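Note to self: the last two entries modelled the partners one at a time, which told us nothing about the interface. This time every component goes in together.
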Amino acid sequence: MTKRALVTIAKWLVIVLFLLWTVVPIALIIVNSFKRAKDIFTDVPKIFFEPTLDNYVNAFTKSDFGLYFINSTVVAVCSTFIVIVLATFASYGLTSFELRFANSVANGFLVGKLVPGIAMMLPIFVIINAVGLRGTLVGPVLAHVALNLPFAVWLLMGFFRDIPRELEHAAMIDGCTRMQAFWRVMLPVVVPGIAAVFILSAQYSWNELLFSLQLTTLETYTLPVGIASFVGAISVDWGLSSAAATVTMVPMIIIGFFVQKYIAEGTTGGAVKG
Amino acid sequence: MTRIQLAPRGRAQRRSTSSYARKDLRLALYLVLPAAAAIFIVMIVPLGFALIASTFEYSLGQEESAVFVFLDNYAKFFADPVAISSLLNTALFTVMSLFLCMLIGVGMSVLLKSLNPRTGNILRAIFAMPLLISPIIVSLIWRYMYDPTYGLVYYVLSWFGLEEWGGLTDTTTALFSIVITDVWHAVPFIILVTSAGLTVIPEELYEAARIDGAGTIGTLVNVTLPLLVKTLIVLILIRGTDAFRVFDLIYGLTGGGPANSTSSLSIYAYKQAYENNEMGYAMAVAMITLIALVILFGPLMRNSARSKGDS
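The predicted structure of the combined assembly is written out below.
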């Protein structure tokens, strides 16, 4: 066998192994969600079994999973909306007026990304608790805004900065006011940036555990907290938690296929573009 | 939106620049203020509160009996063996996870690029699947994988006679088991971003390297990696800070056990606050986590921010 053929075989072996490593754990939990307990707990993983929807029915009827789903949706939608509105205006304001300190402010926003969740979670918990808003969805919404906003501003500033000044000036010379120029000329150009902010904020909010864990109570649990409560129990109900996990993660995996490009560009603030 | 001012063309130019700038400045302030206020209220105020609270000894609900202890909570941290081991665990976790993630992630990206673009894209999309899964679900998945009786990990290990491996239940292997889970979750992100970085490297450079007779390894070291430096720094920054803050995965997999062998700084602060009811001390641990992050990653951040400004 030639050296070239050996290299090709080695390459594909690595790829197949990595494919199994990526897909099998996910597939396992999805398959488990359709299994009865007797089929889950076997010494040799069972490939053929009689599928059942019992776990899904249980998740929605015996636990408050449906409620958690609604809570998570409300929190993700509200926090993402607030982040997008505030970040878009702020980043435009910081870039388009040739402010002297714009760059320092941008880097200051970026430092916000260094703050560990726990250092914000404890004080926010104490404050929310003191003003009696614990157990409402206000806590997680505020926390998610706090965590996503600095990075969103920094990211969008990069997008606004890439727009040639002349574009805006031309619109204003044609009689647009500054805000009209913003709505009609600038905003359409930064839509990819806003898309990145939308995806990053929404997925963060949807998946976030640490803050919601203590800021919510039984009626306001979000999905990650609900799932953590299934896992944390002394005996894990694998069927039910697998069903809950599947319902929570499958939409994100599907969305992920479509938005990978934005995530790659977004998380690095366009830095990878060179 | 319907009314368009049809001002004569000369007017905007004739207006004096100073009054123009002042009007603009006010508009800019109005635009920036809401975001600045939001960040002040939900970030700066809590951090300030945490800093002050970290100098008190108190428990939740008993604020009136709080005792001002100044830096005692910080001194306590360095005399507390579990706190120190949490710090070491966090550092070890970050180093191991970062190293494995970068190695596997960059390696796979380069490998994928050598395939034909269509196959590469399909595989990349599949490899990205773990990316958007919530860490708590990742820990659920892997708790099942690591289950000593029914888990797939032990099933596979038994083929090689390694079913005695400690996994999540042994103090010597638990942290590494969590690192593996973190790698599973984070490598897709590295692949995605590195692949984006690879596409901007001009094909001519590879052409030139080939003509000069450079081998696969030579091209990787002399052409690919130097041009990826900027991307890699950003990745190290994002992944490093994420790993250093690790909470969800540990919370879901081991809760910091067995015998605190997987306790990270975030987990330890959380436990001090909600299990030991030492709010002041918990805040101090959280502040130390923040300080450690700034010391470790601040220089890197300044570096990447500056290089972006230059370009």
